[in-house]
Amino acid sequence: MTKLVQISEILSGKAAGAVRVRGWVYRHRSSNKMAFIILRDGSGVIQCAVAKDKVSKKEWGEASSLYPESSVVELEGEVHKDKRAPGGFEVRVGKVKLITLGKPFPINKDQSVELLLDKRHLWVRSQYMVNALKVKHFCGKYAREFLDALDFIEIQPPLLGKTECEGGSQMFEVKYFRDKAFLSESGQLYSEAVIAGYPKVYVYAPAWRAEKSRTPRHTTEFWLLEPEMAFYSQEDNMKLQEELVTYIIHKLAKEQPQLLKAFGREPKELLAVKPPFKRLTYKQAVKLINKAGRQMKVGDSMGYEEEKVLMLKEKAPVFVTNSLRTHKPFYMPINKKDPETVNDADLLAPEGYGEIIGGSERVWTEKELLDNLEFKKMNSEPYKWYIELRTYGGVPHAGFGLGMERLVRWVLKLPTIRDAIPFPRTINRLTP
Ligand code: 4AD
Ligand code: MG
Q1: What tens digit of pLDDT does each residue of 332-350 get?
Q2: Domains of the chain listed by start with CATH number
Q3: Cβ(400) to ligand 1 under 6 A?
């Protein structure tokens, strides 16, 4: 039997002569003598030409009436160089095997946002989605590579629990036998326990937020990369973030330039991003946001629109530090120099994209933690174990969380983070 090859092998010149290829019909046109099947197999796309007089009557009947994206075929033929064919090669077909005929594909000219979400199970096969998912894959891979080289270990926190991390009102409650539990909104609290045994850990896991925000950067389920480090100050923490983000985007620019270009992102724009990143305090940012024409006063939270205004003209990420204590979670320590603020930093992506990372130092003494829980009017009962981390061997420490879809959105200039998720979950969408 003729050798089955990947289309990419033909396009790169590795496979020549007689070949067998199989995949989905990407485009299709036929006249009364010739059928052109543009075939895709996930590795590439190639033109396959079927001449009526070179195949049986049955094969011709099948090859000349196929549905793009819906029909699946296996073809055997000879590889020829052909300048007119996309990619420069053509397979001149001698044998046609129909695997699936299918039906007219429901996604064609109408590509409204709603239709593409309703038909997500079919849309994920599009070049657009596959390319975005590839970039997300590489972001995760490079992030792990970077952290592993610094001797981090990846750990797995529970994804069901009793404690809130970023705010109880936005947690999903699930029935847990006779009790109730919450879906994790962050692995951070558990990482804080493990760093007393091994000082540098990270979690790359899903996070859930019952947020009602309908913005291009919120979904109810997303992937969070969270490093946590013993003995790190906020300064060390920010340095690690700058280096991590730079490593990921530079590596993308060098190793995946074609993927970036497919989204209109020039690799050199990413290569121009270099640490150290600019730093602003929340209060300085408020001034700049007003200057840029959006009214905001100290005390208002910095939301999507404010960050957009602040970051519109920036070309590299910017840290916004020292947020108000009232805006931030219980685990952030008070900034001694300005006690209404905390030792935290958000990293905002340039070109108007806004927050991609949230991070901070952590309260590490028992007393300050109890004070903070009280300040936030939180029940300390579920945090008994978390408080004990301070009682037994507490150390200064810090960490951060990088929203992977947010990073991909900025890097690829996507209209929404939903495009970086195969099956997005939002307020009114749980299917497909
Ligand atoms: O700023 P957040 O809430 O911080 C934490 O979860 C900390 N526990 C992280 C840590 O210090 N270990 O979330 C971190 C990041 C945000 O900067 C954003 O990129 C992303 O998670 N994120 C979301 N992404 C998509 N949809 C949502 N609803 C998101 N909420 C946060
Ligand atoms: Mg945040």
Answers
A1: 999 999 999 999 999 999 9
A2: 7-100 (2.40.50.140), 120-420 (3.30.930.10)
A3: yes
